[in-house]
């Protein structure tokens, strides 16, 4: 894996980017190892819990082959803290020029979230053409992506939000979809129970989703 990733490389590594919520630093390393064993190495750790940065740091330091990403990046400060913790890519739920510029300045590939045509145009103005469609299923799902493929023919999307193993195939078969994102690979109960075998199995199944 190259030192400096591109957003496209992040999207093309596997059919699914897992959206991960970690409440306990002790879970971070075994969870990352399970995802890796299942064939998923791009890991989006959301900045939604007080432990998130420490979890990123633990994975970045201890799990060879894992590529730590930061999710829920909502400010330039979030982006800077994520890089310090070892993040090599970022995902945001929306787009602001400030977050876009901060990630550029940090050399941090960003998948900015969009759900309207105006937001796509703003992200493109900021130089971003690989975007997260969020919340994908709530905001129009495959029909919206098909509609966008005309005017935004040069954009690749990672639909996230409401994606499941059942609907992932339809999304992944669209030419403007490079991958999907979802939290189903790391269920909260599997994490709480330390059921790493289940997480590994879910990851392996996710890698087999056709694109
Ligand atoms: C999120 O921000 O929580 C992600 O979009 C994941 O959504 P999901 O839980 O519906 O996969």
UniProtKB/TrEMBL annotation:
This is 2-dehydro-3-deoxy-phosphogluconate aldolase. Keywords: Carbohydrate metabolism, Lyase, Schiff base. PROSITE patterns: ALDOLASE_KDPG_KHG_1 (PS00159), ALDOLASE_KDPG_KHG_2 (PS00160). It comes from Limnohabitans lacus. The keyword Lyase applies. The keyword Ion transport does not apply. Belongs to the KHG/KDPG aldolase family. Pfam families: Aldolase. One of its GO terms (molecular function) is (R,S)-4-hydroxy-2-oxoglutarate aldolase activity. It catalyses: 2-dehydro-3-deoxy-6-phospho-D-gluconate = D-glyceraldehyde 3-phosphate + pyruvate. Pathway: Carbohydrate acid metabolism; 2-dehydro-3-deoxy-D-gluconate degradation; D-glyceraldehyde 3-phosphate and pyruvate from 2-dehydro-3-deoxy-D-gluconate: step 2/2. Homotrimer. NCBIfam families: eda, PRK05718.1. InterPro entries: Aldlse_KDPG_KHG (IPR000887), Aldolase_TIM (IPR013785), KDPG/KHG_AS_1 (IPR031337), KDPG/KHG_AS_2 (IPR031338). PANTHER family: 2-DEHYDRO-3-DEOXY-6-PHOSPHOGALACTONATE ALDOLASE-RELATED, 2-KETO-3-DEOXY-6-PHOSPHOGLUCONATE ALDOLASE. Its EC number is 4.1.2.14. SUPFAM superfamilies: Aldolase.
């Amino acid at each position: 894996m190259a030192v400096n990733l591109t957003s496209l490389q992040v999207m093309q590594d596997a059919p699914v980017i897992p959206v991960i919520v970690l409440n306990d630093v002790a879970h971070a390393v075994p969870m990352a190892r399970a995802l890796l064993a299942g064939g998923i190495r791009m890991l989006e750790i959301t900045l939604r819990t007080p432990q998130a940065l420490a979890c990123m740091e633990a994975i970045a330091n201890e799990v060879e082959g894992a590529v730590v990403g930061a999710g829920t990046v909502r400010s330039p400060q979030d982006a800077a803290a994520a890089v310090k913790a070892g993040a090599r890519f970022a995902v945001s739920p929306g787009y602001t020029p400030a977050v876009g510029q901060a990630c550029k300045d940090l050399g941090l590939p960003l998948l900015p979230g969009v759900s309207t045509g105006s937001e796509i145009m703003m992200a493109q103005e900021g130089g971003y053409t690989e975007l997260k469609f969020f919340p994908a299923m709530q905001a129009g799902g495959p029909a919206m992506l098909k509609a966008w493929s005309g005017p935004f023919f040069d954009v690749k999307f990672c639909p996230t939000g409401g994606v499941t193993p059942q609907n992932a195939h339809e999304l992944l078969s669209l030419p403007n979809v490079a991958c999907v994102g979802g939290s189903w690979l790391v269920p909260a109960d599997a994490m709480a129970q330390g059921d790493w075998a289940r997480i590994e199995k879910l990851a392996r199944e996710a890698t087999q989703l056709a694109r």
